[in-house]
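Reproducibility note. Readers wishing to regenerate the assembly model reported in the main text can use the exact inputs given here. Chain order matters: entities are listed in the order in which they were concatenated for prediction.
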Amino acid sequence: MGTDKVSNETPPRKNRLALDFKSATLYAIRVVLHDADTATLIDALRKRMSDAGAFFENEPVVVDATGIDEVIDWPTLLAALREHRLHPVGVIATGGQQEAACGAGLVAVDAGNPPVRPAATPAPDHDVPAAATIPENTGKPADAGSPPQAGAASDGGADPSALAATGAEDAPVPETSGGAQPAPAAMIINRPLRSGQRVYARDTDLIVIGVVSRGAEVIADGNVHVYGPLRGKAMAGARGDASARIFTTQLDPELVAIAGVYRVIETRLDAALQNKPAIIHLSGDSLQFESLGN
Amino acid sequence: MARIVVVTSGKGGVGKTTTSASFSAGLAMQGHKTVVIDFDVGLRNLDLIMGCERRVVYDFVNVIQGEATLNQALIRDKQLENLFILPASQTRDKDALTKEGVEKVLKDLADMGFEYIVCDSPAGIETGALMASYFADDALVVTNPEVSSVRDSDRILGILSAKSRRAERGEEPIKEYLLLTRYSAKRVADGEMLSLQDIEDILRIKLVGVIPESESVLQASNQGIPAIHLRDTDVAAAYQDVIARYLGEERPLRFTEYEKPGLFKRLFGGK
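Running the prediction on these inputs yields the following structure tokens for the assembly.
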């Protein structure tokens, strides 16, 4: 899935291009080098891969050589990676190191900034889900998780095999679909919420810094965090995510709900919970209240 | 540039009109040219409380609809030459109030040299109340120490922060001031009434004053005089404190502590 940079018009059939260039986000394993000695590296790699089993196999790999001053033997290292069914596609390095790596067929990559998550804006009122039911396994993950990072530290030794550099494919970064669009960043509300006001954070968490008054409603598809007295209604997992939770520094709500399972708080809660920091989560069909203690 | 102050509450009967009268009189007493406008179309009260009900010829709606000029409609207060009243219409209803109409009147008043324009809001959150607060720079949120009043004040605060011109234009928000009225220190001490601290914790806005419950308020409205004129009463003193604090002076709170009367006082009279 990529962002389409070409116009959306479909030209008439006989003029349609045989191929198209679009953009993609790639999640890869970043192999961080801590030693320049080839033998050491190869041995460490062997150890790591045998521990990990098939976990990292067939993954695209970016080699991070920013911690190494001496230029390493790229062709040998790359051959070793490929032997372990890892596919080196890029390098993070500077100067001579980068040149050498690119000479061996890698593309210089900028680890740079994580994909900018679009700021979350409140979902319009008419969109607020009425009462979500507990799902059968839907719900994309609440956030686009960071790519698994294998810090392949180097230890021990092995014999360097002098294999020739592999063919330098000049192909652009493979368009392996690198995961879904990043979910919007958590919505942060930095003002008190008054009676009658309602905020709904779609597809993400809601963080309120301030009081949530009686009669106010805070709703999120993800978690709800209130840094202040929670006196109104809080609803997490509004579209069915039963793993969502409600966090607050001062628990005093009118009503709490997670994934549609709700509870009206009519009488004072237990002294350990009332007006204290607490977490509410859903366990099966019932809401569990947990004090965050002192 | 005139400063527009709305006196609002959400809840009815808490003391908005009483406060509008005394607040505008207090500002005029400090030398500021002040006008107070009654936004309660159809249920006008301000003219009674100010004692000018027999001098109403033209009203706010007449001016908006071009049937009269401001000069014809404005009533000058008998006691204070800096104070003017713009009464509400009794025969029309709130649909006669339009944003453009209200905006023009406010602008014309500012052009006439008024320093403060006090808008006496009706109760509720409908057109009248929305119009009264839409153009405000400051808001006095009048609250009784009582649960339904506090909740309604909370509601109106939400509306002020969302539905005012300043909110729509992303300008600096309306400055909100909490004014507690009908406060009885004794009942707070007895646990019958919400205390000042409880209310501040719920509403979390700056407190501009506490007006104690008093029989003087009824006497004042019967006489058609703003309560602030009844010298030597606690209500008048409390309103004077409010004016001072609003204008930037620091004053300690009065009338909030209950002192249990001594034995003799309890035996021989006193509450």
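We highlight two features of this model. Confidence is low (pLDDT under 50) at residues 1-6, 132-179 of chain A. Helices of chain A lie at 38-52, 74-83, 95-103.
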